[in-house]
Amino acid sequence: MSKATGIHDMGGTEGWGAAPVPRPDEPVFAERWQARAFALAVLSIRLSGTNLDAFRHAMNRLDRRDYLDDGYYGRWLHGAENLLLDSSIIAQGTVEARAANMSGGSAEELGPPEPNKPDYAPAAAGSLREVSSAPRFAVGSAVRARAFDPPGHTRLPRYVMGHTGEVVIVQPAQVLPDTNAHFQGENPQWVYTVRFGSAELFGSDAEPFALHVDLYEDYLEEAP
């Protein structure tokens, strides 16, 4: 498994138990720290001079404990820490030292290093973009999700790699997260909603259903 397809890429894996069903009246923030974690995550993107795709990549690089044990907003908080470390807004060990001191310890807190923000500026607001090229695939096209080991960030789920489906919707062109997360250009391209059969993804014993996945053009090739 590559770093790009880490703990976050759970689709099709087993052993996690039943998925909890949220209560209809469940609050957005069950505890005050969760609201603060959300705010810090949003602020970390601005402070680091990065983007939402870089933040997702910062979360996807977490280990199993940091991604799962502290819950949904816990991983946002750990992802924000990764993003601030990447841009040298905080020094390695700063969070641990501050936590220890707040608990009565005497850990040395290092001052902030020299920031190392990326040379990045979005071409426009949001992620939708206009492209001059026509869509490579049309509704009804048989396509296969590419099977490869991504060198960095990707939004291509591991469980659809190498599997064949059918395009059911051609979505507007959007910024490609794989390059945008690493500040290598927005590379906007068409997005396709692809329908996969359950047997194709999970074998002939799978309960019959159709799964729809939105996939960028670079993730797809013509089905053989």
Mean pLDDT: 93
Number of helices: 7
Strand tally is 5
CATH architecture level-2 label of the largest domain: Orthogonal Bundle
> What coarse outline follows from CA principal-axis ratios?
globular
C-alpha Rg (nearest Å): 20 Å
Q: End-to-end span in angstroms? A: 26 Å
- The name of the CATH topology of the largest domain is Cyclin A, domain 1
Which consecutive residue ranges, at least 5 long each, have pLDDT under 50?
Answer: none
* Tally of separate domains: 2
Structural class: alpha+beta
Topology order in helix (H) and strand (E) letters: HHHHHEEHEHEE
Estimated helix fraction: 25-40%
Strand content: 15-25%
Side by side, the strands of the main sheet go 4-3-2-1-5
CATH class of the largest domain: Mainly Alpha
Q: Please summarize the sheet with the most strands.
A: 5 strands, antiparallel
Q: CATH superfamily name of the largest domain?
A: Nitrile hydratase, beta subunit
Oligomer: single chain
